[in-house]
TrEMBL record:
Oxidoreductase found in the keyword field: yes
Gene giving rise to this polypeptide: pdhA
GO MF term (any one): oxidoreductase activity, acting on the aldehyde or oxo group of donors, disulfide as acceptor
Domain Dehydrogenase E1 component: 98-390
Biased composition range(s): Basic and acidic residues: 41-72
Cofactor: thiamine diphosphate
Sorted UniProt keywords: Oxidoreductase, Pyruvate, Thiamine pyrophosphate
Region (Disordered): 1-72, 214-234
Species per Swiss-Prot/TrEMBL record: Isoptericola sediminis
Name the record gives this protein: Pyruvate dehydrogenase (Acetyl-transferring) E1 component subunit alpha
Pfam families (UniProt xref): E1_dh
GO biological process: branched-chain amino acid catabolic process
Length: 447
C-alpha cells in the first residue's frame, strides 16, 4: 500500500518531478483545466456533456445516454471514443454480468428471509451503474465501496459467499482487500470517500518518491490532451456512495482534499433517489452533479441505467485520474427498486407509480432490447446467461450453509494491538454469561 505518512509538504512534493516548477503545477494545476469531452455539447439525441462551469444560459442536466429504454442506440462521439473495444461479445458479457448481479441479489434476499443472513441491502435496479463502472476499472485500480456494491464485488472477482460472510455475522471482512484491490465494505455513510482519497494521495507520494521513474514525479508537466492517448502515470481509486452520503461531512472533506491535491480518484455517486426514506430533493436543491463545480472538478451526469454510457464516462474519468488531471464526480441517475435493506418497508414512504415508471427503464431489459435488435441476444444466449447466474447463486447458497459460525471469543480479537486488562475482563465476563445459558440447558435436560 502506498505510504500516506510522508512528512513532506505539498511544496516539497512539487519538486519531485524534473518538470515541476511550482506547487501549483504539482497539485493544483487541474483546478483550472477544462478537459476536452466535458464541455457542454448538444448531440442528436439531446444528450449533453457537462463542464464544471455553466454557460450564461445555465446547464442542461439531462443525463448523458447511449441506449434508450427501448434499446435504441445513439451515436455520441464524446462517449463512443471510449468504447472502441466494446464489440458484441463484450456487450453480451455486460449483459451476463448484470443478470448474475441481479441473481446474487435476489438469492441473498431470499437467504436473509430464511434466517441465513442478519441483514441484506438489495441493489435491484442499480445493475448498470455498478457493472458499467466496475468494468471500466483496471486490475491495479483500488475500489472503496459502501455496503450495496455487490455487483462491483462480483466483477472484481470476489466470491459471493465471501461477500455474504459479513452479512451472516461470521467475519468482519470476507476477502483479502489487496488480492482483489477492493477494500472491505464501509457501513459508516460516506467514510469510504476519505479512504479512497487518502489512498490516491498515497499513490501520488509513491510516484513522487520514484522521482524520474516510469511514471515521473507528482510535479510532471500536464499532458497536452486528456483524450484516450494521454499518458497515464498512476493507477486510480474509485469510491462508491449514494445520494444520501453527499450530505455527510466526510464526503465534503474528501472532495475538497481530492481537488486541491489533484488526487487520482473518481467519486461515483449512485443517485438512487432515496436516502433510506428521504427523497433526493430533500438532500439537495440542485442536481448533485452541481456539487462538482464548487470543488473545482469536472462533473458528469449519466443515465445510471445505461450500462454503455456508464462504462464510457467512468473510463474517461479514470483515465483523467491516471493521467494526472485530478478527480471527477460522476452522478449516475438510477433508482433503488427494492427496500433500503431487508429491514425496511418502502411502501410506507414512496408511491407505487414511481416503481412503475422506473420499471420501464430497467437496465437489463434495456440492454437486452438493444442486443436483440443487433441479433446478438437470442433465446439460447439469454438462457445461457441465466444459467450462469443460477450457477453463481447455487454456489453462493451452498457456501453460505457451509460457513462456520466463529467462536464467540473472536469478537474481542484485534480490538487493541497489545493485551488490555479491561478487554480481558470483558472477555471473561462475557464467557461467564454464556456459560450460564449452558448451565440452564443442562438443568432443563435433567428434569
Amino acid at each position: 500500500m502506498p505510504s500516506t505518512t510522508d512528512p513532506r509538504t505539498k511544496d516539497d512534493l512539487s519538486q519531485a518531478g524534473e518538470s515541476a516548477s511550482s506547487a501549483d503545477t504539482a497539485h493544483g494545476g487541474a483546478r483550472d483545466h477544462v478537459p476536452a469531452g466535458w464541455v457542454q455539447r448538444d448531440t442528436e439525441n439531446g444528450a449533453r456533456h457537462l463542464d464544471a462551469t455553466p454557460d450564461d444560459g445555465g446547464v442542461d442536466h439531462t443525463p448523458v445516454r447511449l441506449i434508450d429504454p427501448d434499446g435504441t442506440r445513439h451515436e455520441v462521439p464524446e462517449l463512443d471514443r471510449w468504447l472502441d473495444d466494446v464489440d458484441d461479445a463484450a456487450m453480451l458479457g455486460l449483459y451476463t454480468d448484470m443478470v448474475a448481479a441481479r441473481r446474487i441479489d435476489t438469492e441473498a434476499t431470499a437467504l436473509q428471509r430464511q434466517g441465513q443472513l442478519g441483514l441484506w441491502p438489495p441493489m435491484l435496479g442499480q445493475e448498470a451503474a455498478q457493472i458499467g463502472s466496475s468494468r471500466a476499472l483496471r486490475e491495479d485500480d483500488f475500489v472503496f465501496s459502501s455496503y450495496r456494491e455487490q455487483g462491483v464485488a462480483y466483477v472484481r472477482g470476489i466470491a459471493p459467499t465471501d461477500l455474504l460472510r459479513v452479512w451472516r455475522g461470521a467475519a468482519p471482512s470476507g476477502w483479502d482487500p489487496y488480492e482483489y484491490r477492493m477494500a472491505p465494505m464501509q457501513v459508516i455513510i460516506g467514510a469510504q470517500t476519505l479512504h479512497a482519497v487518502g489512498y490516491a494521495v498515497g499513490l501520488l507520494l509513491e510516484t513522487a518518491t520514484a522521482g524520474s521513474g516510469a511514471h515521473g514525479g507528482i510535479g510532471v508537466s500536464r499532458p497536452d490532451s486528456d483524450g484516450p492517448d494521454a499518458p497515464e502515470r498512476t493507477s486510480a481509486t474509485i469510491s462508491y456512495f449514494g445520494d444520501g452520503a453527499t450530505s455527510q461531512g466526510d464526503v465534503h472533506e474528501a472532495m475538497t482534499f481530492a481537488s486541491t491535491w489533484s488526487a487520482p480518484t473518481v467519486f461515483f455517486c449512485q443517485n438512487n433517489q432515496w436516502a433510506i426514506s428521504e427523497p433526493v430533493d430533500l438532500q439537495s436543491k440542485v442536481p448533485l452533479v452541481e456539487r462538482a463545480r464548487g470543488y473545482g472538478m469536472p462533473g458528469v451526469r449519466v443515465d445510471g441505467n445505461d450500462v454503455l454510457a456508464v462504462l464510457a464516462v467512468t473510463r474517461e474519468a479514470l483515465h483523467r485520474a491516471r493521467a494526472g488531471l485530478g478527480p471527477t464526480f460522476i452522478e449516475a441517475v438510477t433508482y433503488r427498486m427494492g427496500p433500503h435493506t431487508t429491514a425496511d418497508d418502502p411502501t410506507r414512504y414512496r408511491d407505487r407509480s414511481d416503481l412503475e415508471e422506473w420499471s420501464g427503464r430497467d437496465p437489463i431489459a434495456r440492454l437486452a432490447a438493444h442486443l436483440r435488435d443487433r441479433g446478438v441476444l437470442d433465446d439460447d444466449a439469454e438462457a445461457a446467461a441465466q444459467q450462469t447466474a443460477d450457477e453463481v447463486a447455487a454456489t453462493m447458497r451452498a457456501g453460505v450453509y457451509a460457513v462456520a459460525d466463529p467462536d464467540w471469543s473472536t469478537v474481542f480479537d484485534h480490538v487493541y494491538a497489545e493485551p488490555h486488562a479491561v478487554l480481558d475482563a470483558e472477555r471473561d465476563a462475557y464467557g461467564r454469561y454464556l456459560a450460564g445459558f449452558a448451565d440452564n440447558d443442562t438443568q432443563e435436560a435433567a428434569r
